[in-house]
Design brief:
single chain, 5 helices
Amino acid sequence: MQDNSKMIISIRELEQAREECLLLNDIRREIEASYNTYHSPLYNGGCKTSRNTGSPVSVAINNIEGLREKYERIQSRLIAYQDYVTNRISDPLIESLIVLYYFCGKSWIDSGIPDGKKRVKDYIRKNKKELNSDEHI
């Protein structure tokens, strides 16, 4: 996904946004796991000794802080892109389908629209110029 000044709406960009949403879920799980220093991923397979030197708690805190910064950076970029996308889509069904699939991580089946994927791709293909023009907003 590109930075805010060069945002575009394309299937490729939306797929990258979906991947980043899934990455946020992984980071969230890793943060939660890091709170338990005994079972933390920072330790060798269940062994009581840390792979890192220093206090296990301080190592866990440093790891959690780094993960939180990464999480917040990705999250703010995704929020900005989602706002950009939803402000430019005029069809409420297409907007809902995009948000559910690309930003909430739901499947196309979860959307309840059997041909949802096709509708989104067709809409973006037909409205590509309008969606990505600077005069839209």
